[in-house]
Amino acid sequence: MTQWQQGLYALTDEHLMPDDATLIDRCEAALDAGIALLQYRDKSGDEGKRERQARALKALCDHYDTPLIINDDAALAWRLGVGLHLGRSDGSIVRARKALGPEAIIGATCQDSLEFAEQSAGEGASYLAFGRFYPSRTKPDAPPADLAILAQVARFNLPRVAIGGIDADNIDATVSAGADLIALVHGIFGHDDPGAAVRRLNQAMKR
Ligand SMILES: Cc1ncc(COP(=O)(O)OP(=O)(O)O)c(N)n1
Ligand SMILES: Cc1ncsc1CCOP(=O)(O)O
Ligand SMILES: [Mg+2]
């Protein structure tokens, strides 16, 4: 198992980190404390800001030797030479794989669905993401999922990502259910000190 396939997966949020300096400072704290992956997730639609911030995060992630994943935007991922996360209506995994190459990390949202998991695995996804498992402040309307799905998708032999409302209190149960990577927004960036939050979560994961 390579290093990015297990551990914490931090997702940025444009409301929690509204300006460049806050975004970079808080992502650096999380990277320094030990995360496996960082996703740039910005729903603002401000193309200039997205390009600038994603480039700054790429330089930071290179420094920490941690992969950067871009949410939704295959063209931006291609320009930066980084990974990509695609939801059910964000475009084709097959096309993204062709454009980004065999080594690129391409993740797929599978919600609570074995069918989505099978399809995404067949199309060349690098990891499968399930959730939301708990009430989420970031995406309250995301379809709910049952932890049992994590055991059911072990047969695809791809890293299983769990997302949605995960924090220090429920991370242990989520890992025990089969998650390899734990994806969080508020559980990391909703805290005053994201580095301390990452250290606590890593401790809780090891228990
Ligand atoms: C790791 C991870 N899992 C799931 C998602 C959700 O993707 P999507 O369903 O496309 O929703 P948005 O994030 O685009 O609102 C994700 N981004 N990352
Ligand atoms: C993007 C996404 N997809 C399902 S839940 C979610 C948000 C996760 O954020 P939080 O960890 O704050 O619940
Ligand atoms: Mg999406």
TrEMBL record:
The keyword Nucleotide-binding does not apply. InterPro entries: Aldolase_TIM (IPR013785), ThiamineP_synth_sf (IPR036206), ThiamineP_synth_TenI (IPR022998), TMP_synthase (IPR034291). Its EC number is 2.5.1.3. Binds 1 Mg(2+) ion per subunit. One of its GO terms (biological process) is thiamine diphosphate biosynthetic process. It comes from the Bacteria. GO terms for molecular function: magnesium ion binding; thiamine-phosphate diphosphorylase activity. 4-amino-2-methyl-5-(diphosphooxymethyl)pyrimidine binds at Q39, Y40, R41, D42, K43, N71, T109, K139. It catalyses: 2-(2-carboxy-4-methylthiazol-5-yl)ethyl phosphate + 4-amino-2-methyl-5-(diphosphooxymethyl)pyrimidine + 2 H(+) = thiamine phosphate + CO2 + diphosphate; 4-methyl-5-(2-phosphooxyethyl)-thiazole + 4-amino-2-methyl-5-(diphosphooxymethyl)pyrimidine + H(+) = thiamine phosphate + diphosphate; 2-[(2R,5Z)-2-carboxy-4-methylthiazol-5(2H)-ylidene]ethyl phosphate + 4-amino-2-methyl-5-(diphosphooxymethyl)pyrimidine + 2 H(+) = thiamine phosphate + CO2 + diphosphate. Coiled coil: none annotated. Keywords: Magnesium, Metal-binding, Thiamine biosynthesis, Transferase. Pfam families: TMP-TENI. Its cofactor is Mg(2+). SUPFAM superfamilies: Thiamin phosphate synthase. GO terms for cellular component: cytoplasm. It is an enzyme of class 2 (transferase). Pathway: Cofactor biosynthesis; thiamine diphosphate biosynthesis; thiamine phosphate from 4-amino-2-methyl-5-diphosphomethylpyrimidine and 4-methyl-5-(2-phosphoethyl)-thiazole: step 1/1. Condenses 4-methyl-5-(beta-hydroxyethyl)thiazole monophosphate (THZ-P) and 2-methyl-4-amino-5-hydroxymethyl pyrimidine pyrophosphate (HMP-PP) to form thiamine monophosphate (TMP). This is Thiamine-phosphate synthase. The gene is thiE.
